[in-house]
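[RESIDUES AND BACKBONE]
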Amino acid sequence: MTARTDTAEEPAARAGTSGYAVTLRGIRKQFGSSVAVEDLDLDVRPGEFLTLLGPSGCGKTTTLNMVAGFLTPDGGRILLDGQDVHRLPPDRRDTAMVFQQYALFPHLTVGQNVGYGLRMRKRPKADIQVRVAGALDRVGLAGYEDRMPGQLSGGQQQRVALARAIVVEPKVLLFDEPLSNLDLKLREQLRLEIKHLQRELGTTSIFVTHDQTEALVMSDRIAVMRAGRVEQLDTPETIYREPVNAFVAGFIGQSNLVPGICTEAGPDGCTVRLSTSDTLRARHAGTVAEGEAVQVLLRPEALRLGAAGDGHGEGAATPITGRVVEIVNEGSLATVVLETAGSGRLRVSVPDPGAIGLPTPGDEIAVSVPPGTAHALPAGR
């Protein structure tokens, strides 16, 4: 399918191919009989933070490695700043990679690791020392030049890897799941630090992850990939609120997908009869027709415990009843899981559960769907 893109483009992006920092056209990569990337088109704007997001095996890391020059496409073109780099080796592409496994030289000091790329470029020794010190200061490791990698924590090693990438001042920074080996708190801290650093430097960046939270927090735009293709390319907010299909809806954020039939469709929304026989109004992206089977996306945080009024009349919330089967209480947030008749299980997020109280498993309760929160998607896409 054709990836949905946002229409509000910057002037550089509207200027044509030469206005993009990275351009992929018709990229294909196959390993034996397995196609990893299929006819991929992608444009990355100067200075933006673009994330390739998707499940394992979707082609995101293969795509990144082709941009870096570690893999050669079987077809298509790769342009950096308008220059075709299809046949250029990695060291001539003006890119730098931050790897998942850090890839530090264990026998070199931190300073020697960070300055390695500059030495390969034959920069003067005094310049290398100044730039290494500056890069380490940027990542919060000032004064660590003489330490060995084995003396550092995982987070510190990843900071060294980041310093080694930025010290050469590449036109494009590439990140291959750099936070996946870290614990949760450190991962949350470093993803903000990386984003702040990228904004400060203004370096075009492509970030690969399967972690949806990382993508939502860090990205200017997200390319959601499946089976070697981009399903949707847009801002985090648009992808979260207006996914183009059930795959994207299910992959980004927590979601409830409820089957139904569109009984009336207009330019801005449609009426859906759910499998529970309830009806509700839902937004759609212009891809839903009357009589068509749909899946209605209901985000857990949009739902409310308890029916609002009788659920009838213009602007009223739609109630759905069910039996509580599980409650996951995380302190500041709880998830109530209900089994409904015909619509499967619904997850409802409850902020500050201690203040309002929670039902107990086995209770029959109603959940209300506030107007404007449901989004209809074509079934089976």
User: Anything to note?
Assistant: The chain has eleven helices and 20 strands. The longest helix spans residues 184-201.
